[in-house]
Write a structure and sequence with these properties.
Structural class: mainly alpha
Radius of gyration: 12 Å
Shape: globular
Strand content: 5-15%
Number of helices: 4
Distance between the termini: 18 Å
Strand order of the largest sheet: 1-2
Helix content: 55-70%
Length: 78
């Protein structure tokens, strides 16, 4: 999947996906200068952050966890 495709799949902006890439948050590979995502890996990443958010990040982790739950709910309803 491309940045645009993963953004659409997750219901977020492309800039949000690129922010996650810069932070090393979302799993990706870089092929020929382009970021690529493997859907099962993205789905597992999303499940992992919904089930066990990283501790120690204060309100930001709580907000990310809440966002992940909302994303997961919207994706699994499709």
């Amino acid at each position: 999947m491309s940045v645009a495709e993963v953004a659409e799949y997750l219901g977020v902006s492309e800039s949000k996906v690129r922010q996650w890439i810069r932070r090393g948050t979302v799993p990706y590979v870089k092929l020929d200068g382009q970021y690529k995502f493997f859907l099962p890996v993205v789905q597992e990443w999303l499940r992992a952050i919904v089930v066990a958010p990283k501790n120690g990040f204060g309100d930001e982790a709580t907000g990310a966890h809440d966002s992940a739950i909302q994303m997961w709910d919207s994706i699994t309803e499709r």
